[in-house]
Every structure is written in structure tokens, then in C-alpha cells.
Amino acid sequence: MDKKEFVLKAVADKKALIVDVSDKIFDYAEVGFHEFKTAKLYEEVLKKEGFQVEMGVGGMPTAFKAVYGSGKPVIGFLAEYDALPELSQEGGCTMRKKAAGDNPDGHGCGHNLLGAGAMAAALAVKAYIEEHPEAGTVILFGCPSEEKGDGKAIMAREGVFDGVDAAFTWHPGDKNAIWSESTLANVSVFFNFKGVTSHAAAAPELGRSALDAAELMSVGVNYLREHIISDARVHYAYRDVGGIAPNVVQGHSRVHYFIRAPKSWQVKEIYKRVVDVAEGAAKMTGTEMTYELYAGLSDYIPNHVLSEVLHESMEEIGAPKYDEADFALASKFFHETATPDEMEAKRANMRRMFGANHIEEIEAHPLHTGIAPLVWNGKVQAGSTDVGDASYVIPTAMCTTATATLGTAAHTWQMTAHGNTGIAHKAMLNAGEAMALAALKTMESPEILKKAHDEWMAETNGEYDCPIPKEVGPRLED
Fold first, then answer.
1. If you write DSSP's letter for every residue of 36-87 in order, what string do you get?
2. What stretch of H or E contains 418?
3. How far, in whole angstroms, is CA 191 from its chain's centroid?
4. Residues 6 or more apart in contact with residue 468 via CB below 8 angstroms
5. Which whole-number Å values give the CA distances from 10 to 5, 6, 123, 172, 189, in the listed order?
6. What's the sign of the alpha-carbon dihedral 172, 178, 181, 183?
7. Which of 53, 109, 327, 424 shows the greatest Cβ crowding within 10 Å of its Cβ?
8. How far apart are CA 263 and CA 209, in angstroms?
């Protein structure tokens, strides 16, 4: 039996378990650092499957490390499982309909599938090590709170990934492809202004407005945008405006900033300048300013060597094999869940991806049934992921498989609605198979491991500066 056949059988043998875990986590829908039922489920399942499970790694109760085997090389799989607020949705339903129960949250990024698919890969590699004990070690890392941008950054900072030779992960989406583009690094920061209250009409000279300070900071940052790189993004939201009475000078305010850029060092430079603007706003208004870094994450560095192995494995395994029921459901999602403007945007995107001649065919069967070519275009995606922090300390490759209808955006109720369907199950198992095959190829090739390590060293110089300072712990209470 060759490696492909072995992997396909190993995942098929555990199919019912993998799907059951994914569907249970879909129902749990727990947000970052509150994945208690989810983490307990993984602990029970993985122990029963023969892994040595350590819970609470990195000081996070819902993080874990599940190990099987011994010696080198050590291959890691990265699992995520946190949900998003206010995205509860009945699975398989093409109308906006909250799932039964009181939980308002939902898996709008498909992390119930992500974690279970990573587990599928780990189970298959574990089965291989059972027959070939000399092959090495497999570790499934349970990584909480990706949506807040904390989990893997703290795990990397605390050395949880130390000793791992290569890592693989994936993400649910609407295509079957290697994640070949980088992502934006970012930090999340709160700025607090403390002023002096007074009667705004009778004694305005005695007041020092914290709201004025926050607004002046916003003006200053708006001017700053002209003088930072065009790929950077600075977003903000007022969290406290100091009260609702116009005739009281506001004595407190709080504003939340996101600062993003293609590289971590660029974020740090812009962050310092934003702090300078905040200090200037405080001086102009006679208020006091404090700030606290809430979270942060690094840019993702896709490892070319491992990505090529993963792409080759995806092509060998083939795309998910959907049936007619899957295509029928996908057609309903494609046609019934979008406004006319959204439909036109979908069609324009499909034309760009597949060409105008294929639009009619795609609309009838709107699931990606091929493997996209591996293209290195040097682009940076607009979003962020804490997989970036893992990629700074381990050579890492990531893929995506089509768990959802073409054109389905992440962080939407439509993405949640796909999360426990046959479409999603098939693509999740497919991702697990591809990652497992890539892991076996990597484990048994010192040349691949050396090339991957050399590339990683050239990119990072073996250095990682966590964007979350040592004194800032996981935000377990939020």
C-alpha cells in the first residue's frame, strides 16, 4: 500500500469520528478562550485515540498539545476551533435563521471544520507511526482564539512550538488551493484619556475634555495615513465617549485601534507614531493618556518548499468528490442568498477566476471541483491570521479546500450555514488527507526538511519578536 492509499484508508476508518467532532463543535460555537466544551471534547477523543494530551499549554485553559510517537522529525498540525459572535445560523439553511437554543454565536469562519480536519491529518499520521515507529512524532496543537489574534502568538511566545520541524494547517473556504500569499500583521490597542468634568456652559474653563482628546487623536491619525505605506491599514472605534450629557465636559474616553501592515516591523513603526499622536492629543487638551496593547499577530510567511509538497499532495488526493445533493444545495446558496448587486459581484469574480465561457456551468454547479495551480505572486491578503506567528517559529504550509459554495465570504451567516453540510464534511476530510500525505512525504525526506528549514532561516534569521509583550497574558475574561 503506497502512502496515498494508506492515508485515504486511515481517514476513511476515522470518518465517522471526525465528522462527529466537527458537528458537535459546530453546535457548541464557543468564542475565543471560552472553548471549554470544545477543548474537553478534543481531550477525550485524542486520549482515547492514544495521544498524550497536555491541556492548558501557554497559560491558556483551552489550548492543548496532543503527541504521538517519539524522536525526530516532529510534524505539527495546527487546529483552530473558536466561533464568531452573533453568527448563529441553522446549518444547511439558505435563509437567515438562528440555530436552535440561546447561543448567539456561530462558526462563520468554519473553525469547527478546521480543527477536525487537522485532527484527521494527525490521526492518519499517527496510524502510520504505529506501523513505522521510526518515522518520528506527530503533534496536534489545539490553538484557541484565532479570531482575537491571540492563541498562536502566545503559544509561539511561550515556546509551545519549540522542537517542531514542520507544520501544516488549512482553512475552510470556497476553493481548493495552497495559501500562497502572505497576510497582514497587526496590533490591537486601546487608548484611554482621562480629563476633568465641569459644567460645559457655566465653567467650561475648568473642564478638560477626554472626548476632545480622542477626537483630536482621530484627526491626527487621519493625517498620519498620508505618510505611511499604502498597504497599511489603521482602523478605530470609540468604546467610551464619556457620557451622554452635552452640558458636562467629558472626563473619560476610550478608543480602540487596529494597526495593520504587511510586515510586523512595519506595524511596530506605525504603532509608535500612533502613540505619539495620542500623546500629542493629550497635551493639546490637558488630559492624561494611557494605552494598552490588547492583542497582536505576525504576518504569515508561507514556506515554499512545504507548500509545494502540500500542493503535490492535494493533486494526488484530488479535489473533494461532491454528489448531486451537494451541487443542488450549493446552487440554492449561490442563487438564493445574495442581493442582485451581490450576484453581479459574484459573477464578475467567477468570470475573473474561470473565464466568461464557464459562467453558465458554474452557476449550475457552483462548487470548486479542481485544484488551483500553485502561483507565487508575492501578494499580501487583506486579512490577518495568527498562523503567521507559527510561521515565524516553524516552517509552515497552509491550504484551503472548498467547504462552501463559490463566492461565499468568511465571517458571514452563509459560511456558518455550510458548516455541518455534506459539502463541508467532504472538503474537511479532503484537507485532512492532503495534509497527512504531505506530512508523510516530509517526515521521510531529510532533503525536504533541510530545504524547508533553510528557507525558513533565510526568511526569519531564526528570530521571532512576539507582537504581544511578555507581560500581556491571554484575555481570558473577554
1. HHHHHHHHHHHHHTT-EEEESGGG-TT-EEEEEE-SS-EEEEEEE--BBTT-
2. helix 413-418
3. 25
4. 150, 153, 154, 157, 293, 295, 296
5. 9, 6, 8, 21, 45
6. positive
7. 424
8. 36
**CA–CA distance, 365 with 313 (Å, rounded to integer):** 25
The predicted model scores a pTM of 0.94
* Cα distance between residue 303 and residue 164, in whole Å: 14
pLDDT tens, residue order, the chain (478 aa): 899 999 999 999 999 999 999 999 999 999 999 999 999 999 999 999 999 999 999 999 999 999 999 999 999 999 999 999 999 999 999 999 999 999 999 999 999 999 999 999 999 999 999 999 999 999 999 999 999 878 999 999 999 999 999 999 999 999 999 999 999 999 999 999 999 999 999 999 999 999 999 999 999 999 999 999 999 999 999 999 999 999 999 999 999 999 999 999 999 999 999 999 999 999 999 999 999 999 999 999 999 999 999 999 999 999 999 999 999 999 999 999 888 888 888 888 888 888 888 788 888 899 999 999 999 999 998 889 999 999 999 999 999 999 999 999 999 999 999 999 999 999 999 999 999 999 999 999 999 999 999 999 999 999 999 999 998 888 887 7
* Cα gap 63→295, rounded to integer Å: 17
Residue with cell 464568531: 84
3-state secondary structure of 301: coil
How far CA 71 is from CA of 120, 130, 367, 371, 430, in Å, comes to 22, 13, 41, 34, 28
Residue type, position 1, single letter: M
Q: How far apart are the first and last CA of the chain?
A: 49
Report whether 334 contacts 362 (CB < 8 A). no
Specify the DSSP element, H or E, that contains 297: strand 288-297
Q: Is residue 192 helix, strand or coil?
A: strand
